[in-house]
Write a structure and sequence with these properties.
Blueprint lengths: L13 H17 L20 E7 L5 H10 L3 E7 L7 H11 L5 E5 L3 H6 L7 H4 L8 H5 L2 E2 L2 E2 L2 E13 H6 L8 H14 L7 E2 L4 H11 L4 E4 L2 E4 L4 H15 L4 E2 L5 H9 L4 E5 L2 H8 L7 E4 L14 E10 L6 H13 L1 H10 L3 E2 L8 H4 L2 H6 L5 H10 L11 H18 L3 H18 L7
Parallel strand pairs: 1-2, 1-3, 7-10
Antiparallel strand pairs: 3-13, 4-5, 6-11, 6-12, 6-13, 6-14, 8-9
Helix pairs in contact: 2-14, 9-10, 13-14, 18-19
Length: about 450
């Protein structure tokens, strides 16, 4: 039986405790075999030969960190295999490979999907190789990979939300980065009036993690535990105000309806027709790579707040990413060693931050050079140290948010329902209500108790 472990170093809030209970319920209901019981198929390489590992990841330029590991280690060598981002097909490929007995050794998996991998019996228990290093990482990120006091993942980085925006055009229009959502709405009208092709932002109907993050930042709790069952609520007041705001901006033609990171969106970012992007900290590298000719014109601010006088409230884009050891590896100890080094060695973490892996999972970032001085990044953002914004955002994330089992189902359903609402001209609140019904049905089909 798997359950989210109680926090080993500080008392957890009631909300966090409820989150732990929710995961316990899901994994108890759906998992009949403990992945920890699956033995590894080997214990090392041939005498005198380095152990060879395969690592699957979608992070651009993460090969730089892999190369640094290989240069620092004679006994372990890692080959990088670039795959499609997990929610876009990479996870299915990984799980299928585990079932076929030919999986990679180490893989990148988002925090939100670790429970799904456990339900698929796809992860090695790496407790004996990693537990002693728990204090190296921030509490909440470390706990995303701990179930029933067993460790199944080493955290890499979080994706705290921020707003990337064209500071030069905002200044030209007499605007500052909006501090509240009301200000964002008013700024959207100014931007729209300034040019017939210009929008403050895109409504990314293709990005369920983005929509989820906006709801989390508004205070929503889509999945909580109630008695012995999951409570599913995508129609609460916090979610509804998000949907209503974006619906109003869609109806008034204040945001452009287009998929982000599409060719059309790329062009709009390059030519200044879409002026901002609310995204995770890792999006820095995407903005720089998409629009290099706009260097010096961008700034980064916090996500607009719902309540102006309250303390900063932030959220994440899909939580963050971890390194897992896939079940069946012949070298679990070496795979765990690589996962730890990749995500905690100062040289590696500095590389990961610079290439856009996200906000580091380690608790002490004082030795991470790219956070202190990264001319390529800082110059692109007009000399701003954007990591100061994301350090504050990371500290303001509500870590009581619970990722449910079947996250892939949640994301597929939300994307489909929102896309249909856009095409049919129906209200976004209906799309969230339909997604709630879809998730209730999906959980029940898997034998998971759902509250009325």
């Amino acid at each position: 039986m798997l359950r989210r472990s109680p926090h080993p170093r500080r008392s957890r809030s009631l909300a966090a405790g409820a989150a732990a209970g929710a995961l316990l319920l899901a994994l108890t209901a759906c998992s009949s075999d403990d992945p920890a019981e699956a033995p590894a198929t080997g214990d090392g390489g041939a005498p005198g030969e380095p152990v060879e590992l395969t690592f699957q990841s979608w992070v651009p330029n993460i090969d730089q960190a892999v190369d640094a590991f290989n240069a620092a280690h004679d006994d372990i060598q890692v080959e990088l295999e670039t795959i499609t981002a997990g929610p876009d097909g990479g996870y299915a490929t990984m799980i299928s490979a585990v079932e076929a007995g030919n999986a990679a050794d180490v893989a990148q998996v988002g925090y939100s999907s670790i429970a799904d991998f456990l339900l698929a019996d796809a992860l090695e228990d790496i407790t004996e190789h990693t537990a002693a290093h728990a204090d190296t990482f921030t509490d909440w990120q470390w706990q995303t990979g701990v179930f029933d006091e067993r460790v199944y993942a080493v955290p890499q980085a979080a994706g705290p939300l921020g707003m990337f925006y064209r500071e030069d055009i905002f200044t030209e229009l007499g605007l500052e980065a909006p501090e509240t959502w009301d200000q964002f709405y008013e700024a959207a009208k100014v931007v729209r009036a300034s040019d017939p092709d210009r929008y403050i932002a895109a409504f990314a109907f293709n990005q369920s993690p983005w929509m989820t993050g906006l709801a989390q930042q508004s205070g929503a709790q889509w999945f909580t535990v109630e008695g012995d069952a999951w409570n599913v609520d995508l129609t609460d007041e916090s979610t509804t105000r998000v949907a209503e705001l974006w619906q109003r901006m869609i109806d008034e033609d204040l945001v452009k309806i287009e998929a982000d990171m599409s060719s059309e969106w790329n062009a709009d970012i390059q030519n200044g027709d879409v002026l901002s992007w609310i995204s995770g900290s890792w999006a820095d590298a995407i903005v720089r790579g998409t629009a290099p000719e706009t260097a010096g014109s961008w700034g980064v601010a916090h996500v607009p707040q719902w309540d102006e006088d309250d303390e900063l409230v932030s959220a994440t884009w899909d939580g963050g990413s971890s390194s897992v050891v896939l079940r069946g590896t012949e070298h679990p100890a070496e795979a765990a060693e690589f996962a730890l080094w990749l995500n905690s060695d100062p040289e590696s973490v500095s590389i990961l931050t610079s290439v856009g892996a996200g906000w580091p999972a380690i608790s002490d970032t004082s030795q991470i050079e790219s956070l202190q001085d990264d001319p390529e990044v800082f110059d692109f953002y007009g000399g701003q140290n954007i990591w100061e914004v994301f350090a504050e955002a990371d500290a303001a994330v509500d870590t009581s948010w619970t990722w449910p089992p079947l996250v892939s189902t949640l994301y597929a359903s939300l994307t489909d329902n929102v896309s249909t609402a856009i095409e049919d001209g129906t209200d976004l609140t209906e799309a969230y209500a339909t997604t709630e019904a879809d998730m209730r049905a999906a959980l029940e089909q898997r034998g998971i108790n759902v509250a009325d």
